[in-house]
Amino acid sequence: MDDFEELLAEGSAVPTEGWDFSWFEGRATEERPSWGYAGLLADRMAKAEAALDLQTGGGEVLATIPHPPPVLRATESWPPNLEIARRTLAPLGGTVVESADTADLPFEDGAFDLVVSRHPTAVLWHEIARVLKPGGTYLSQGIGAGSNRELSEAMMGPLPAPTDEGIAESADAAGLDVITLLHESLRAEYYDIGAIVHFLRKVLWTVPGFTPERYRPQLIGLHDRIRSEGPFVSHARRYLLEARKRAPVQTPWT
């Protein structure tokens, strides 16, 4: 079957640790959001006294900041990423704490004036608000509802329409005032089936439970489609949120 087996084996063998996507160069592309998360992150970090990066992956994005705050902490849940993140963030004075994505954060109330997260798998709104100081900021680039829906449906068949994330409502309920909330749809192109296999192994929520063996018929169909029609096109959804923790309401003595 021409080069299908070779590409399948290649995409299956690439390590998935960390959030370094350089392997995809020449094999897949994805538009970047217009707001430039890395630049916003660097700006906010340079002004912070104590900052926390949630679900840091291998720390690759956080490591790009030129001026880290005096106190820099990060969380990560996946053991292979923990050691990568600790090595990556050590030059910035960052400390990485193992913490499950859905667990309460292992930090004191009001410990940080800045909390950030890029592509979190779970957003614990009340925990984020709890560890922020009054007036502190939460900055996040998140994955929007229905992200890469075309690729998910190519593997799993028709899916229910995505529901609204309720971001503004969730932030408000946790005591956070939304400053900025933007959404964008970004074109993604996959030039060979090896790139699709590696992406699905790395970005697990696109097709839950994905393995090349389980989805072999669908992969063969996509491979043939790419060979005859050109790159497979999907669309990643992203949102940018910046919110500020409300100060507690002062109740006057009566």
Automatic annotation (TrEMBL):
GO terms for molecular function: S-adenosylmethionine-dependent methyltransferase activity. Pfam families: Methyltransf_11 (PF08241). Keywords: Methyltransferase, Transferase. It comes from the Bacteria. Coiled coil: none annotated. InterPro entries: 23S_rRNA_MeTrnsfrase_RlmA, Methyltransf_11, SAM-dependent_MTases_sf. CDD domains: AdoMet_MTases. This is Methyltransferase family protein. It comes from Umezawaea tangerina. The lineage of its organism: Bacteria, Bacillati, Actinomycetota, Actinomycetes, Pseudonocardiales.
